[in-house]
Amino acid sequence: MNIKQSILLRVRLAFLAVMLFAVAVVARVAYIQMAEGEKWIAMGEATLFDYRKVKATRGNIYSDNGSLLATSLPFYKVAFDATLPREDVFQAGIDSLALLLSRYYADRTPTQYKHLLTDARKQGRQYIILNRRQIDYQDKKMMETWPIFREGRYRGGIIFEKIDVRYRPFAGLSRRTIGFVNEQEKGAGLEYSFNEYLAGKDGYAYYQKIAGGVWKPVYDASNVKAVNGLDIHTTLDVNLQDVAETALYKAMVQHQADDGLVVVMEVQTGEVKAISNLSYDGNGRYYEKFNYATGGLFEPGSTFKLVTLIALLEDSPVKLSDSVDTGKGEMIFHKKYKVRDHEEGGLGKITVREAFEHSSNVAMARLVDENFGKNPSRFVQHIERLNLSKPLGIQIKGEPTPRFIFPGQKGWSGISLPWMAYGYGFEITPLHTLALYNAVANNGRMIKPLFVRAVTRADATIDRFETEILVQRICSEKTLRQLKQLLEGVVENGTARNIKGTHYRIAGKTGTAQILENGQYMRRYITSFVGYFPAHQPRYSAIVLIRNPRGWQQYGSNVAAPVFREIADNIYARDLRIHTAMEFSPYHQPGTFPVIRGGKLEELEQLTHRMGISNHARTGQEWVRSARNGNAVMWKGAEFSKELVPDVTGFTLRDALYLLEERGLIVQFEGKGRVQSQSIPPGSRAGKGNRILVKLG
Length: 697
Known about the structure:
single chain; six-stranded antiparallel β-sheet; Trypsin Inhibitor V, Chain A
């Protein structure tokens, strides 16, 4: 076969192959159209059209007085359907619209915007995004007045796609407590913990997928409308929150500390009025990185000595007047473990009361070892009974379980019990410590800290959260009275003397614990102060904790306690309910009358008769107050309810003691003469075991 025939044969074979391939393609197309047409049409529609989720608007978060802490603001993405406007409307308004778009977005010239809209109309495009920048509601209303757009969605082609953006009017105030929820439905704080209420119920809408992978909404009768979320009402007071954060921030900057927290709680309700957590960012600033108050575990240090005293007073023969020898401030336990006091040279031989007021580690360790060393489980039972070994069950998710090592468990040793006596060897949350001290202020009743009061939709209450009791009574009434005396003594005579001298009394305890790292205690500290005020009629309790302060001040007394005092002073200045009413002092009237303000009628009548002063009584009551009538004294009846604190101003100390103690109050007094003022205002509820200070003059 010559070359010409060979080439011709190859051409014929190639042509035959191409023809067979073309026939196969035609046959396959025909098969797909005829046999599988419905299948591929359905698949195409599924690709181009789909029901997509429409997010519900999140509910609001309010403070205790209705101020907004978090809300969802509507923002909009602006798109355009170029096929909808009439030709005359489009041509009449395109130049003005292009100019307005150029001025507003400032990313294209008017000519470029005109070309964009005109080309989209020529191409029959039903969805183009004019600019990816989101606009707010006011700008949306403005755009709705522009040429072409003013014709509306169906005649002007304007498309506003709503996007909710979470907004906090008070910026970073209590940021970690309010919290967040991300796109994966994960988060922290109240936003996450109450997401079931706040999130609402998402809807569904029909969308079409167009060029560029963009989904365009298609209005369809089967669309499911979203149901907006519910609102939650917190216990937070924005004013107290600001006070607490400011005081904590100042101390963090002053001491160049790593982390710090403060929580302020209402004694009787457990409502958390302020909560702040600050951490150093490494660049000279502080921010809320983590909610240490609810999710952090710390060795409490000396603030735990309150538990030690409860166990000793309730379950041993120890009395506050007993003596304990602390030597020179050091003591060896179990042959090799040394316990030290922070005071140089030690405290020597002191009473149990003084040991608590001056926060002696040696005294607490020795007393617990002597009374519970042979049966440490007895001491542990008090920890468990006080609800300190398990989570409190607060409303914010992520609360950790306290870390304790108890007898019989791995890690328990001969030093574990003495260490535990002054707050080492275990970890609890700051809220556990605060709940315990709040219980002392609340006459022995331990309650769960409360963050959210109610869930509402408009004016309708959907759910309400009440104060929950954790422990009905933390100790006997006798022990409770002693604990109140001890906590006041810490401020009056002990480690917190530097915050003494207010118009009201503070009760509380300092704490200083070394930081444990890699199994060793470092010369860095966790400082704290926890207590309540006013001591004689507690209304607020609070805890301040500052981690790793730098400088020469590194103890709870000079780092955390002043923060507590500053917060308490601010609250005292704002809350008139905890003020003692000012005494009314009438102008002095000259005459021969003695200084008689009030007392027991029988005794006052005898006194005035003996002094030759005319006096008249218009009442048959036992207790009276005096009033002048010419040259005579008139006795007016003084009504004293058994449930309320009486007004004893002007009375002798003896009469005041009788009236106050008759109502179960514990009386302390200062000065000489008649009663000039009393720390609990007259007419207040007389809580049995409450302490009242009367000043004489």
